[in-house]
Design brief:
This protein has about 400 residues and is of the alpha/beta class. It has two domains: about 325 residues, Peroxisomal Thiolase, Chain A, domain 1 (3-Layer(aba) Sandwich); about 50 residues. About 35% of the residues lie in helices and about 20% in strands. The strands form four sheets. A five-stranded mixed β-sheet has the order 1-7-6-4-5, sandwiched between helices. A four-stranded mixed β-sheet has the order 8-13-12-11, sandwiched between helices. A two-stranded antiparallel sheet has the order 2-3. A hairpin with a 3-residue loop joins strand 12 and strand 13. The structure holds oxa(dethia)-CoA. Oxa(dethia)-CoA binds next to helix 2, helix 6 and helix 7.
């Protein structure tokens, strides 16, 4: 039995910041309302050329640098996201290509804001069974691209970003000790994001979805989700500790999904734990859905909130409904990687992009020589050009 240890972590958030005061100029809201009801002061917004895949790649590259692992050693890449640019190719495949992780399987995981914890458990199980030795789990989102900017009940809440961890198999006990994954599809209507190909509702017009919300944007019953969240955080933390034969007294830090400081306060009360046991950075990030826990983890490490041998719990909740918790022993000290070595690693990614382009051209050339149409020959000229540039 192998233990899946976290040996690297990295986050990437876009440079552009949108403050509550900026939002005051866009919609009918106030900094006072947003701060009092959510704790959020600002959030990051992806730039025009940034995508969920580019954010995910940056976070993964940083996590690999901390782990001092070569991309070719990675055997599994899981990207938890609700905002992929494509249904396929998956965001994970694009990250695989950007990294040059030539021996990795890659797939996306859809469990909304619980996605990172789901992914962590999937990767830990793959390591425990001996199926893979190393894995990267990423939570990455461009939530601001699926918001209805006229719906003040949701557009003030979300932000963009990505966080990643590298997992490595070891015979030393520790790492991911226990997890609890749960779902309740009956609550699917409380928090939803329709797929682009969902049938339009003729009576409302093509712009709208059946519940009156704009198509391809988030719809949420905030109060109901709030109530659900405060219940399941406590339940899943207890259940996970029970599986590991531990109690709350053994826990050093809880890194919850960052949706609202009031949810975290209510969960702390329910668990009878001091607020300081919960790490929060929602104030500066907003709700970044699947990315929120790994981003918060990186900030917690930077703030010195995690020491070797600490027990940390990640707990997520969100659309589906889904919720999940993982208990991790934080007992691997990362190697001290020199700056030149890190820079050298970055150069490898430029090489990976070049090699990917060469493979693509090679395929087209082979098809041309063989006289067969290329896979995208059926696309119209405009579509073809934009996809070539994009992918
Ligand atoms: O990651 C996915 C999980 N999602 C969550 O965890 C979100 C959970 N829910 C929440 O965090 C909270 O329910 C919200 C922050 C979304 C809303 O807070 P609330 O205290 O539940 O407010 P509410 O929806 O009950 O609305 C209260 C009032 C309403 O006005 P009336 O009807 O009382 O006159 C809203 O129209 O606040 C109004 N309101 C706003 N006012 C100013 C709603 N949004 C805004 C706004 N600015 N942005």
């Amino acid at each position: 039995m192998k233990y899946a240890h976290i040996i690297g972590w990295g986050k990437y958030v876009p440079d552009r910041v949108l403050t509550n005061h900026d939002l005051e100029r866009m919609i009918e809201t106030t900094d006072e309302w947003i701060t009092r009801r959510t704790g959020i002061h600002e959030r990051h917004i992806a730039g025009e050329r940034e995508t969920t895949a580019t954010l995910a790649f940056e976070a993964a590259a940083r996590a690999l640098a901390v782990a001092d692992l070569h991309p070719s050693q990675v055997e599994l890449i899981i990207v938890a996201t609700s905002t992929p640019e494509y249904i396929f190719p998956s965001t994970a495949c694009r990250v695989q290509d950007y990294l040059g992780a030539i021996k990795a399987g890659a797939f996306d995981l859809s469990a909304a804001c619980s996605g990172f914890v789901y992914g962590l458990d999937m990767a830990a199980q793959a390591i425990a069974t001996g199926s893979v030795r190393n894995a990267i789990v990423i939570g990455a989102e461009t939530m601001t691209r699926v918001l209805d900017w006229e719906d003040r009940g949701t557009c003030v809440l979300f932000g963009d970003g990505a966080g990643a961890v590298v997992l490595k198999g070891s015979n030393i006990p520790g790492g991911v000790l226990a997890s609890t994954l749960r779902s309740d599809g009956s609550g699917g209507d409380l928090l939803s994001l329709p797929a682009v190909y969902h049938n339009p509702v003729p009576t409302l017009g093509p712009e709208y979805f059946h519940n009156g919300h704009k198509r391809n944007t988030i719809a949420m019953d905030g109060r109901q989700v709030f109530r659900f969240a405060t219940q399941v955080i406590a339940d899943s933390v207890h259940e996970t500790l029970r599986k590991a034969n531990m109690t709350l007294e053994d826990v050093d830090l809880i890194v919850p999904h960052q949706a609202n400081t009031r949810i975290i306060e209510a969960a702390a009360k329910r668990l009878k734990l001091p607020q300081e046991m919960f790490y929060t950075n929602v104030q500066w990030m907003g709700n970044t859905s699947a990315a929120s826990i790994p981003i918060a983890l990186c900030d917690a490490v930077k703030d010195g909130r995690l020491q070797p041998d600490d027990n940390v719990i990640f707990v997520g909740f969100g659309g589906g409904l889904t919720w999940a918790a993982s208990l991790v022993k934080w007992n691997v000290t990362p190697p001290d990687v020199s700056l030149p070595r890190r820079e050298w690693r970055r150069a490898r990614y430029v090489y990976a992009r070049g090699r990917s382009k060469m493979k693509r051209y090679g395929r087209r050339f082979g098809a041309w020589i063989g006289g067969s149409p290329t896979p995208d020959a059926s696309l119209k000229d405009g579509d073809k050009k934009s996809r070539e540039n994009d992918l």
